[in-house]
Amino acid sequence: MRGNEANRVISVSQGGLYHCRGGRGDPVYYTEDSSDVTVRETLPSKPTVTLQPSWTQIYSGETVTVRCEIQGGEGAQWMYEWRAAKLNTPPTSNEYRIIRTTESDSGGYSCRGRRDYFFSEWSDIITLTVSYKPKAKLRADNTAVPVGGSVTLTCSVSPSSSSGWKYYWYRDEKSSEALTTQDAVFHSNGQISVSQEGLYRCRGGRGNPVYYTEDSQSVRIGKTVTVSGADSSSSPVWLIVGLVCGVSLIIILLLLLYRCRQSKCADKPPDVIYSNIELENFGNKWKHHKPEQSAVYSEVKTGAAEDSLMYAEVKQPKKEKAKKNKGKSSPAADAAVYSEVTSGSSLSQ
What is the pLDDT of residues 131-169, one digit of tens each? Predict the structure, then answer.
């Protein structure tokens, strides 16, 4: 402290509570003390506000600590003042702790330190943003496990700017036990590979104690069915080929059945009468002959009296005279006689 008695002015370099009084004579006569004047000393460095954990995106239900730090003031007995959106701790603490954050805790936070008559500057404002509890998302590169292979599942938490997540995997809807390395192959980027069928879901977690997101939607993973040992990738092709062949075979059978019925109806006569007639031709007359000598097969079509015709095929028996012809057969004797007879005609006509 430096003094100047002429103008009663002093300069001080320490903060504190100052007062003065006047005096004169010898012995000195003093006046009453003046009123006190407080001198505050401002520290050259200002505090810094930090968040623990240091994630830029905070979700409702997480625990967050807002901390005020003064560089170079370690070990000193500081008192702290806060400017915060919501205060639930004493303003003299260097930490502002929120056990379970809500959307109302969003806002700007700043602080300053005080020691005796020394005050720091106000820190820069740090903004805390609290969002609704997120839901994990699950994506599968395939919903069927190939033979001898695996399916990759990916779990994520949106927005992608949020960090610090670990992922927990579950199989079957009612299971509360997370999968282990015995159940799947775990990757470092929120992915696993599974070879067992089932209903899978996931969720994210971070912090201590662990804060969990909502469960993702479930994805059912099945196994690929192979056909006769063929490669699983070709099973859809074989299925289509089998269906086409089956339908084609059915159509061919139906066409053949239809053609067969049409052919039978065209070839079958309305009514066919077969009779054995023993006839012998003597001149222009027909007479019965013994059965062992000749046989005549006659096919007679019956129908309307005016339209129907009767066709007869008559084999003429050989006469004994023909045998005397030096072994040569007579054409007239061997030839068959065909006769067209209208319905209602008698054989003797």
Answer: 999 999 999 988 888 888 899 999 999 876 678 899 999
Instruction: Please say whether the beta carbons of 144 and 224 come within 8 A.
Output: yes
Taking the CA of residue 227 as centre, how many other CA atoms within 13 Å lie in the half-sphere pointing to its CB? Answer: 10
Question: Taking the model in full, what pTM does it have?
Answer: 0.50
Structure token pair of residue 183: 């159940």
Give the span between the Cα atoms of 331 and 316, in whole angstroms. Answer: 11
Number of C-alpha atoms within 13 angstroms, CB side, residue 190? 21
Among 242, 14, 245, CA closest to 117: 14
8 Å CB contact between 40 and 118:
yes
Convert the pLDDT of each residue in 116-126 to its tens digit. Answer: 777 888 999 99
* Domains of the chain listed by start with CATH number: 48-131 (2.60.40.10), 137-223 (2.60.40.10), 272-342 (no CATH)
- For tokens 């839901």, what's the residue? 135
Q: How far is CA 201 from CA 150, 151, 198, 231, in A?
A: 17, 14, 10, 29
> DSSP state, 159?
S
**Contact call for residues 146 and 154 (beta carbons, < 8 A):** no
Q: What is the rounded CA–CA span in Å between residue 56 and residue 38?
A: 41
